[in-house]
Design goal:
The protein is α/β, with parallel strands linked by helices. It has helices at 9-17, 30-55, 102-111, 130-145, 158-172, 195-199, 209-221, 256-268, 292-309, and strands spanning 56-64, 67-74, 85-89, 115-118, 151-156, 180-184, 245-250, 273-278. The protein has one domain (9-309): Rossmann fold. The chain has nine helices and eight strands. The longest helix has 26 residues, at 30-55.
Length: 310
């Protein structure tokens, strides 16, 4: 690493080669969403195929709570965690993504346990609260079949939103909490009022707010207000019952404000929370296998979750 630069050469090269995605000026329709999904899937296919060949022992589709999940079983297994149940909620602005992705594979390998990626319904075909209802059903079914204290839950971006909202709903229903939660750059505020939504719009090489997440937010919310805690969990009331949580982000992350505000809300409510911020990093850098800082984020979350299990 160049001692004069605070970030790795790999991260610097990424920043120099990428520009944030901008969506069509029109509202997001089902047809537009399908095109986005197809393009994203095609872009990620080579890396996914390589990771599966190297790190995955098996991959199968099951149902939990009448919702499809994709179970990624790693080649490297940790015997002491043979009874651990890991749930994963993918990102993608509520518009695209799948339970089998870079994060599910790499985290399964780091944790040494199968990861159950939830295949929740996507917007705009499915608007709030359908995806949240599905994630909540999977969580309920999971803890009915597996010990909550041997369960961990993690999510990326929009998936982080659904993780927090589903666990808040579970608390309202009197359900036990998992051992720990990992949130990679969670999209916890859909209002767009956070400082980083403007300050990092154009600096984050992956996502932007204007003509990007603003449209994705409207497609997901429908007529629902962004101030609804079920839509923007930064506005929820937390207490000490919420499970130990780690949040990762970076100084270029468009959603840095979401992460900071969510960490403060958890801490103010008495919950245990660890906020980790990486210099110069952007949204969801944890999905990048070959960027050292992304690996550091994954390792930090895996260590946090593992410590609560072991």
């Amino acid at each position: 690493m160049d001692p004069s630069s605070p970030i790795s050469p790999e991260a610097r090269a990424f920043l120099e080669s990428k520009r944030p995605t901008r969506l069509p000026l029109l509202p997001i329709t089902a047809a537009i969403a399908r095109r986005i999904r197809g393009k994203k899937a095609a872009q990620r296919a080579p890396m996914l195929a390589s990771l599966q060949e190297e790190l995955v022992a098996s991959c199968e589709r099951r149902t939990l709570g009448d919702v499809h999940v994709t179970v990624v079983a790693p080649r490297r297994r940790v015997e002491a965690r043979s009874d651990v149940h890991a749930l994963y909620v993918h990102g993608g602005g509520f518009l695209y993504g799948a339970g089998l992705d870079t994060s599910s594979i790499l985290m399964a390998d780091l944790l040494g346990v199968p990861v159950h990626g939830i295949e929740y319904s996507l917007s705009p075909e499915a608007r709030y609260p359908k995806a949240l209802d599905e994630v909540s059903r999977v969580y309920r079914a999971s803890i009915e079949a597996h010990a909550p204290e041997r369960t961990v839950v993690f999510g990326v971006s929009a998936g982080g939103n659904l993780v927090v909202s589903a666990l808040l709903r579970a608390l309202e229903d009197g359900l036990p909490m998992p051992a720990a939660v990992g949130l990679f750059t969670p999209w916890a505020d859909l209002s767009g009022t956070g400082d980083s939504h403007r300050g990092n719009d154009g600096r984050d090489p992956v996502i932007g707010w204007t003509n990007s997440l603003d449209k994705a937010a409207r497609a997901y919310m429908g007529a629902g207000p962004a101030a609804d805690p079920g839509i923007s969990p930064v506005r929820a009331a937390f207490d000490a019952r919420f499970p130990p949580t780690i949040i990762t982000t970076g100084t270029r992350d468009l959603l840095l404000s979401d992460c900071v505000q969510l960490a403060e809300a958890l801490r103010d409510g008495g919950a245990e929370v660890c906020l980790r911020i990486w210099e110069g990093m952007w949204h969801a850098v944890n999905v990048e296998r070959n960027i050292p800082e992304g690996r550091q984020m994954r390792e930090a979350v895996a260590a946090f979750l593992g410590a609560r299990l072991d």
